[in-house]
Specification:
3-stranded antiparallel β-sheet; globular; 4-stranded antiparallel β-sheet; single chain; disordered N terminus; 9 strands; 307 residues
Length: 307
């Protein structure tokens, strides 16, 4: 559904969410917990969650199925107080959310030091497969089935040890011209696909920014829905972004515009959306506690608060 009716900036975003098939309700729950629940203690009553996602058009059956899945996979822990069910982030879920939070709200590009750290895989079979996953998880891009590279940073030094996980990996340092570095980055990290995702994000959410600037009196629940869908879509792209140094990215890299847009919209939505959570959010101890101080630092270097 095209976002052309700026008098109702929320419906096109909800329609776009439902246009994906199948609807991955569990993924939306991950966004809700990471964005809105984790800063407020990490626990939420299922009834509060159901009220929120009902505004996004997700019925209670899908909510319960999604929460059961996340609990069985170790993301959440379920407790009951009387007839009420509460879901809290597990210790492992909390660690995973902390890493995603850093990338979504606080990511700053690292400094380009002018050289690469190369990993040449010499192992075979299951060991090679595991090492590929490990390297990608640590920010390495893939040039070929056996060659991975990442910008040389302080973290890169961690991979020089002779631990069992790194047995069968030869490590090299390489340097070249700035032009060659950009070509290698584009090839190894599939930047075209990431750039396309950022452009789609900007196209989808520009109408929301225009509507918010006109201050059309959105209800607090609508502001929270818009905030959740904003971060849900931004998260889908930014967690695939290798977050390379600026020197390795094109001058017109759309990730910059997308992050700036997300920041501006977030700052316009946060006051009303937090007010809804203050008035409606419930954990096992009662009303949700206020967000932690770090919450107020999200996107602080981008966008301007609107009061």
């Amino acid at each position: 559904m095209a976002a052309t009716d700026t008098s109702d900036p929320i419906s096109p975003l909800v329609a776009a969410f439902h246009a994906r098939s199948p609807i991955r309700a569990w993924s939306l729950m991950v966004t809700i917990y990471g964005d809105a629940v984790a800063p407020r203690g990490g626990e939420l009553w299922l009834g509060t969650l159901s009220r929120l996602v009902e505004a996004i058009g997700i019925d209670d059956r899908l909510v319960r199925t999604a929460m059961s899945r996340l609990a069985s996979e170790g993301w959440l822990e379920r407790t009951k107080v009387g007839r009420k069910s509460f879901y809290r982030l597990s210790e492992g879920g909390d660690r995973a959310f902390a890493d995603a939070t850093r990338r979504i709200y606080f990511a700053a590009p690292p400094e380009w030091k002018g050289n690469w750290r190369l990993a040449i895989l010499t192992a075979t079979g299951e060991i090679r497969t595991a090492q590929r996953d490990m390297l990608k998880g640590h920010g390495f891009g893939q040039l070929s089935p056996t060659v991975f590279l990442a910008p040389a940073t302080a973290e890169g030094d961690l991979f020089s040890g002779n631990t069992p996980a790194f047995s069968g990996i030869a490590w090299l340092d390489a340097a070249g011209s700035a032009e060659d570095a950009m070509l290698l980055a584009g090839e190894a990290f599939q930047l075209q696909a990431v750039a396309a995702g950022y452009r789609r994000f900007v196209e989808a959410f520009c109408p929301l920014e225009l509507a918010l600037k006109r201050d059309e009196g959105l209800a607090d629940i609508d502001r929270l829905v818009a905030r959740i869908l904003l971060i849900h879509e931004f998260r889908r792209v930014v967690l695939r972004d290798p977050l390379l140094p600026d020197a390795l990215l094109p001058a017109d890299w759309p990730g910059r515009a997308a992050r700036s847009l997300a920041a501006r919209i977030y700052r316009m939505l946060v006051q009303g959306s937090e007010r809804w959570l203050d008035q409606n959010g419930e954990c096992a101890d009662g009303p949700l506690p206020p967000p932690d101080p770090v919450f107020h630092e999200r996107f602080q270097d981008l966008g301007k608060p609107t009061g």
